Every structure is written in C-alpha cells, then in structure tokens.
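In response to the reviewer comment on reproducibility (Comment 2.3), we provide here a single inverse folding case reported in full, input and output, so that an independent group could reproduce the run without further information from us. The structure tokens appear first.
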C-alpha cells in the first residue's frame, strides 16, 4: 500500500461525493443513517479532517457555501476526476488484497487459558449477548432497506458484517458448550508444570543443563 493511500474514512467521503455534492455535516448524518459506523470509525472531528486532507490533495473541490438560519456556514464539496480515479484504485486494492489486521479478540482467545474456565466462559457469554444485540440492530436495518427497495449492492458491507457477527456467535456458542460439557478440557491453575503448545513443540537442546 502506498504511503499516501487514502484511509478508510477518506474512501467513505469520496464514495459519498461520487453520489453528488454535499457538505461534511450531511456526510456525517448519511454515514450514521447507513450504519457505516460498523465499517469505519466515524467522529465529526475526524470526518472534517478527512475532508480537509482530500481537499488539500485536490481529490475533492469546493462548489459553494450556504448558511441557513443561525447555523454556521457550510461548505459543499464535490469529487474531482482525480478523486474518482483514486477511489476506484483504492477500492480495487481493498477488494483484491487481504490485509492482516491483528484483531484484539483473536489475541484474547489465544491467551484466555490464563483465566479459569468459568471466568472465560462467563466473559464469552457476555460477548455473545452484546453481539446478539448488534445482530438484531443490523437485521432491522436490512429489513428497512428491503422495504424501501434499496438494492443490496448498496449495503453489501452491512450484510457482510451481519453474517460475520452471526458466524461468530455460532462459533462462540459451540465453543462454550464444549467447555461446559468437558469435551474441551481446560488447563488447571497455571504453574511451573503447565505445558504450553510451544513447550510441546520446542526442539530438544542437547547442551541444556541436566542433559
């Protein structure tokens, strides 16, 4: 990836402006309405910063300002031809090339044997409850989109997120059941005798003391 690559929020801004000119507040409201916060981190300050950076790189341009009532003056932007090229190139890169993202949850799963089985499963159950609420929220969004006859092409990211969360809940539920039933044996208290995966696969060192 090039050092000057547009970040995820910048991609969202370019994509919004490819639909038509709009000002940052309108972009912010649309992103929230479309549940894009499940896909990119959205904060007003970071959005305005992203707009400023894109404008500085001449990927978007100002097309006018307006002031309604007592509201602050708002600048409307539109995407430039260079911005369209960057959007297309960046989307192609994102879709084609997997990126290793190092999610924290995977780290937690890898190290949760440091907790007791009851602690770990209680935490995982709480996680599945939170995920279930998110799934229900996304399901409601999907129902509304279908009622409004919005093509799934426009909310593929939300649909993907919904199915990934659903798959996570199913995996976690099965994992918890296996621990509870004893099918998956949990290690006892961590001690000097605790054997890790690394220990079991560590090559024998003939020069180690005691050999």
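Designed residues, in position order:
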């Amino acid at each position: 990836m090039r050092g000057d690559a547009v970040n995820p929020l910048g991609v969202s801004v370019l994509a919004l402006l490819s639909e038509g000119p709009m000002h940052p507040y309108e972009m912010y409201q649309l992103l929230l309405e479309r549940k894009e916060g499940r896909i990119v981190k959205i904060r007003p300050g970071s959005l305005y910063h992203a707009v400023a950076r894109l404008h500085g790189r001449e990927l978007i341009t100002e097309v006018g300002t307006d002031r309604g009532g007592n509201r602050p003056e708002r600048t409307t932007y539109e995407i430039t031809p260079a911005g369209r090229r960057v959007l297309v190139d960046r989307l192609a890169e994102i879709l084609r090339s997997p990126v290793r993202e190092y999610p924290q949850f995977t780290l937690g799963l890898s190290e949760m044997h440091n907790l007791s089985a009851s602690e770990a499963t209680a935490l995982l159950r709480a996680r599945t409850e939170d995920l279930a609420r998110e799934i229900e929220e996304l399901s409601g969004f999907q129902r509304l989109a279908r009622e409004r006859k919005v093509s799934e092409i426009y909310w593929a990211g939300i649909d993907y997120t919904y199915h990934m969360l659903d798959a996570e809940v199913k995996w976690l539920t099965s994992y918890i059941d296996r621990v509870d039933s004893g099918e998956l044996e949990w290690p006892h208290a961590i001690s000097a005798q605790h054997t890790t995966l690394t220990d079991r696969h560590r090559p024998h060192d003939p020069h180690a003391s005691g050999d």
